[in-house]
């Protein structure tokens, strides 16, 4: 077990949050594609193609897409007309957030 840090935990800047959110979204996008493509190929190669199979594959792909779009919506940064960062969006990497599982 890692030793506890003494003192106050440092805060992240808005630009750092935006950059980390981009890498987190790319990671989850790649993970979703990496599990969806083999599942679709395996389903069509091994199992009989029925309406139920196609429906369940479409449902699972829609679920993966909706989860990704929700995370992208939550982390969307807002910029001013001059290009200055106004709001960094929600931090996808915050402790206890959706991108981290904390064991109690």
TrEMBL record:
Q: Does the keyword Transmembrane helix apply?
A: yes
Q: What is its main location?
A: endoplasmic reticulum
Q: Which GO terms describe its biological process?
A: protein localization involved in establishment of planar polarity; vacuolar protein processing
Q: Where in the cell is it found?
A: Endoplasmic reticulum membrane
Q: Which Pfam families match?
A: TMEM208_SND2
**Any GO MF annotation of the entry:** signaling receptor binding
What membrane topology does the UniProt entry give? Multi-pass membrane protein
**Presence of keyword Transmembrane:** yes
Q: Where do the TM regions start and end?
A: 27-47, 53-71
Query: Keyword annotations for this protein?
Result: Endoplasmic reticulum, Membrane, Transmembrane, Transmembrane helix
Q: Which domain of life is it from?
A: Eukaryota
Quote a single Gene Ontology cellular component term: endoplasmic reticulum membrane
**PANTHER family membership:** TRANSMEMBRANE PROTEIN 208 (PTHR13505)
Assigned protein family: Belongs to the TMEM208 family.
Q: Quote the protein name from its UniProt record.
A: Transmembrane protein 208
Organism, by scientific name, is: Drosophila mojavensis (Fruit fly)
Q: What gene does the UniProt entry assign to this protein?
A: Dmoj\GI19142
């Amino acid at each position: 077990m890692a030793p506890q840090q003494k003192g106050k935990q440092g805060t992240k800047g808005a630009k750092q949050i935006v950059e980390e959110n981009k890498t987190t979204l790319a990671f989850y996008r790649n993970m979703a594609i990496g599990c969806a493509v083999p599942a679709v190929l395996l389903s069509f190669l091994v199992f009989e193609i029925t309406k139920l199979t196609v429906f369940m594959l479409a449902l699972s792909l829609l679920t993966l897409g909706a989860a990704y779009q929700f995370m992208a919506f939550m982390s969307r940064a807002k910029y001013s007309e001059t290009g200055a960062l106004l709001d960094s969006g929600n931090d996808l990497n915050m402790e206890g957030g959706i991108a981290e599982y904390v064991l109690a």
